[in-house]
Amino acid sequence: MSYMLPHLRSGWEVDQAIMTEEDRVVVVRFGRDSDQTCMVQDEVLFGIAEKVKNFAVIYLVDIDEVPDFNGINKHIMVDLGTGNNNKINWALADKQELIDIIEIVYRGARKGRGLVVSPKDYSTKYRY
Fold first, then answer.
1. What's the pLDDT tens digit per position in 14-29?
2. Is residue 65 within 8 Å of residue 34, measured between CB atoms?
3. Are 42 and 29 in contact (CB under 8 A)?
4. CB 27 within 8 A of CB 102
5. Which of 42, 84, 89, 126 would be 2's cystine partner, CB 3.0–4.6 Å?
6. What's the rounded Cα separation, in Å, for the pair 13 and 31?
7. What are the angstrom distances between the C-alpha of 61 and each of 5, 50, 100, 109, 118?
8. What residues are paired with 31 via a beta bridge?
């Protein structure tokens, strides 16, 4: 499903997508379009894109195409209970769980928060 979602093809495009979007959460999936886990996540993202379009915009970045990405300027951390508040590095297959996380980020951003707490604790669900 990665072909159905918009791709950002350079670090500049990623920066512009983030900098120019003032009212919605920018969701960026960094990964490889050919990776099985990314394919699962892309399908979920495509499935929720219409439901979250009023408060979030979804982009994909293939890390093989954009290997030297230089960071994100507007960054909201999400406490998922995993100890890593910067990213979700597993496929979230449940559409409603992903929508809930995006909504929490949206509400936190509207209030000017830099850290929001996930509605669900993932500390025991995904062990590495």
1. 889 988 998 999 998 9
2. no
3. yes
4. yes
5. 42
6. 16
7. 10, 19, 22, 22, 24
8. 62
- Tell me the one-letter amino acid at 103: E
Rounded to 10 degrees, the C-alpha dihedral 13/92/105/80 comes to -120
Tell me the C-alpha distance between 14 and 81, whole Å: 27
- 72-110: pLDDT as tens digits: 445 678 888 888 777 787 888 889 999 999 998 888 888
CB 28 within 8 A of CB 71: no
Rounded to two decimals, the pTM is 0.71
**CA 93 – CA 126 distance, rounded (Å):** 13
Question: Using CA atoms, how far apart are residues 51 and 53, in angstroms rounded to an integer?
Answer: 6
